[in-house]
Each structure stands twice: as C-alpha cells, then as structure tokens.
Specification:
By secondary structure, this protein is of the alpha/beta class. The protein is about 45% helix and about 15% strand.
Length: about 475
C-alpha cells in the first residue's frame, strides 16, 4: 500500500504531454523520432513511479526527470555494443572482448569491409580458391606443422578434431586434464557431443604413460592431452608429456592430439612470465593435431586454430562440421595480419597489444601510474583522494592462472559519494570505464590502458565524481 506521502509524490509526476513540451525534450525532435522520445519519457516515468512506491525516490525533481529522458534517448539511439576503457589490469578480459587487434590487423579488417576481396578466388588462375589459403602458409611456417585449418573458436576446433579423429571410438585423457573453460565448455561434454567416448586414466595429480597404455584397447581412437590453461595442479604431481604420448601412440598406431588452449608462439619466460608450452614445441614433440585460440595469448581475432599432420587436417576439411564453423573474411583478414606480425620477432612484442601489455616493464608501468595519479589529482580537487600504489595485474582469458604481473595502480577514493555510485556512473558513462573496487576505493590499473585512453578516462572520472 502506498502511503499518503507517496500518493502525493505520484500526483506530482508530470504527464507525458507535459514532458514533451519541455524545451530540452522538444529539441530532441531535431535528431530523434517522436516515437523514440515518447518511449523514453514513458520508461523514465515508469521508473520514477516504481522508485516512489518502493520509497527510493523521496522527491520529484523536474530537471532530474528531463535529464534522465535526455540520457535515455541518447543511450537507446547509440550502439548497444560500446567501447570500454579497461582499467581492470586483466589483459585477456573475456567479458570485455579478449584480445585487442594490432594496428595492421585493424587496417586489414577495414580493407575487407570497404570493398570486395579474393576470399575464395585464386587471383593467379581465376579459379575458385580456399578461404584458408591466406592462413595455411603462415601457420605452417610459424609452427613447423605440415598443414593448418582455422575455425570459429577453439571450442569448435576441439569438437571438430575429436569428431573427425575419434567419432564412435575411445579417447584416453588424464583425470588431471578434464578441464572446464568457462561457459559450458567441459572436456567430458565436448567429447560426448563429438561422438567420441571418454576414457579417464590416472589420478587428479599423477598420470603416468603406463596408465594410458593400460587403457588402450581395440576401441581406442586417440590419445588426448589438454593443457590445463586455467588452473594448476601443484605439489606432488606428474603429468605425462606430449613426447611420452607420442612414443606410446607410435607403438600402438594411435594419433595424439594436444589442446593447448592459449596458443603461445613466443616464449615469454625471459620477461618473467611462467614457462608455457609453445605451439612450435608441441608440434616438434610430434603431436599429430594441435589446437589453440586465436584471441588468447596469440593476440588476434576470435578463432580456433588447428595445426598438424596433413592427413588428419585433410580429413577435418572434409567434415561437414567445418562448413558450419567456418570463419568469415574479417577473421581471415585480422588473423593473417596478426600472424604476419610474428614473422618479425624484433617487433612482435610491441605490435601485438596482448604481448605488449604482457611484457611492459615495471618501471614504465609505475611511471605511467604516477603520471596518471598526478593528472587525476589535479582535476578532481577535493572530490577524491588520489594515490599511486603498487599492485598486481592478471593475464585473464583462462591463461597463466598463477601469474602475478606486478603493476602500477591509481587508487581513487571518492569523498562525496560512495564508491559503488562512482563505479556505476563510470560504467554508464561515455566511454564506459571499468576498474577494480577495493575497500571503498576504485583501483585503476595502467597496464590495460591504451595510448589514447588517458584524456577520456580523466573526463569520465570527473563527471562520475560530480554525479549525485
Ligand atoms: C580457452 C580454451 C578453449 C576454448 O577456446 P575458445 O577459443 O575460447 O573457444 C579450449 N581448450 C582450452 C584448453 C582452453 O584454454
């Protein structure tokens, strides 16, 4: 039941027509349709009504309602998929779109969006070509594999590979490698979907070659190694290596597949990052098929890359599922350009944003954070306390889960509004800004800020601190 005060407030709410006569709202007709505006007015008035009834809105303020309508109209007219400034320090943030593309990759995508391209025509002969031909040569050169195929994402790459190599057969996997990769990608379920039967061997922490060997039967179709990319089993452990699986596979004429997850083409351990198996090493170890993501550590577009022995890749190309999970021209363009960056080891760490963010020196991060803290402090005055702080960034994207990347942070503690209010305003601002919250403060990690982010970030922060 609404109290008398609430009834009085509800009566104060303007009618739709009255709202439309407000000069600021009337001006919207220059750029927006009447329907759009009426819809926004109704939405805002409905929200007000609900707010009054729940006791959250204690007064009716006409100016506030008008501003709210202006904001609602602008927001519904703008794109739903919007740019976000990532101040979380999580480099491969799946919710924020994972890898950023290199300049060349972005240009390549723009080129094929603007005009026609030779996606499936061989310009030398004028005959029909393959959409994968732009990528095959680069992938085999960079990884040392005989052949390559690219599909929509690594989840579909694994599904396709299992379904082609082991449909109706048994696939042997270590119990320590039955991973779940967010969403609902779980090795046992993908296996079921592919039509292969999972045979688990060993224990969570130790699996020996003899465990695989004991499970081999007439029904076995494949030995599978899954890189536990998003977790680690530490302590008293023993995993069977790809080399050992390859030896075993050789003796029983069984193919060996390795799902690497995040596909590393360069070893970043000299930069203080954990040693991860590279694609080249895994190919060299003799794996028949290796799968990995395009938009994890490789730093390209979303894609599932399959490299390996020609005989197996040929079989996959003929599988009808390949057509269902094929990549589009934007992916071909972005991936080709990303792979070309890797042909220049001297500049790849600078040119591929994911690698650049992973390897940025601590001194540079600290310097950037100190500078940003100074700029912000200069703008926000006494609305917030601003300080430089040391902290830790994360790789994200389910990669290198144990890696702590030391970084520089800016701690912003608002004085006039609660931090939750600040965070919401930043998220709803233009551009949206996402950071981390800790004990009443907002933490901005400079590692994931891009070169043109400073100015809009500072503006957004200033606006959000002024919001009530
Ligand atoms: C991330 C990951 C996948 C799924 O890759 P997507 O490109 O996200 O589809 C599969 N396997 C492993 C081991 C992974 O780390």
């Amino acid at each position: 039941m609404a109290g008398s005060e609430q009834i009085a407030l509800l009566r104060e709410l303007p009618a739709v027509d009255e709202m439309l006569r407000q000069p600021k709202i009337n001006d919207l007709l220059l750029n927006h349709s009447r329907t759009e505006i009426v819809e926004a007015v109704r939405k805002v008035l409905d929200e007000m009504r609900a707010g009054i009834l729940s006791g959250k809105i204690p007064a009716v303020d006409m100016e506030g309602i008008v501003d709210n309508v202006l904001h609602t109209v602008k927001q519904s007219a703008g794109p739903n998929l919007r740019a976000v400034i990532n101040a979380t320090g999580v480099i491969l943030h799946t919710n924020l779109g994972r890898a950023l593309l290199s300049d060349r990759a972005r240009q390549a995508v723009a080129r094929v969006s603007e005009g026609y391209c030779n996606l499936e025509i061989d310009l030398n002969t004028g005959k029909r070509g393959s959409r994968y031909s732009a990528l095959e040569g680069l992938l085999t050169k960079l990884t040392g594999a005989e052949d390559a195929l690219v599909v929509n994402n690594n989840a579909s790459a694994v599904l396709l590979a299992l379904g082609t190599l082991a449909r109706g057969k048994e696939v042997i996997v270590s119990r320590g490698q039955l991973v779940e990769i967010g969403g609902s990608f779980r090795i046992p379920e993908v296996m079921a979907q592919s039509g292969a039967r999972l045979v688990e061997v060993g224990t969570t922490n130790k699996t020996y070659p003899r465990d695989y060997e004991a499970a081999i039967t007439e029904e076995t179709g494949l030995l599978l190694n899954v890189h536990t990319s998003n977790y680690r089993i530490v302590g008293f452990t023993r995993e069977t290596t790809v080399e050992e699986l390859v030896q075993l596979g050789g003796r029983y004429s069984l193919p060996v597949m390795s799902d690497l997850g995040s596909g590393f083409l360069v070893d970043l351990s000299p930069y203080g990052l954990p040693q991860e198996p590279t694609v080249q090493e895994t190919v060299k170890a003799g794996a028949d098929v290796v799968t990995f993501s395009g938009d994890k550590l490789l730093g390209g577009p979303q894609a599932g890359i399959i490299v390996g022995k020609k005989h197996f890749i040929d079989k996959m190309k003929k599988n009808p599922l390949t057509r269902a999970v094929r990549i589009d021209k934007f992916t071909v363009a972005a991936l080709e350009a990303t792979l070309r960056e890797y042909l220049h080891p001297d500049r790849v760490l600078q040119n591929v944003p994911t690698l650049r963010m992973l390897t940025e020196p601590l001194t540079s991060l600290h310097q950037k954070a100190r500078q940003l803290a100074e700029i912000i402090a200069g703008k926000v005055g006494d609305m917030a306390e601003v300080a430089f702080e040391e902290g830790v960034s994360r790789v994200g994207g389910g990669a290198m889960p144990t890696a702590d990347l030391p970084t520089g942070l800016v701690r912003v503690t608002p004085r006039n509004i609660p931090v939750e209010r600040l965070v919401t305003s930043l998220r709803l601002g233009e551009p949206a800004v996402v950071g981390r919250v800790q004990e009443g403060s907002l933490l901005l990690d400079v590692r994931t800020l891009q070169k043109n982010d400073t100015e809009p970030l500072v503006q957004a922060l200033l606006q959000a601190l002024q919001s009530q």
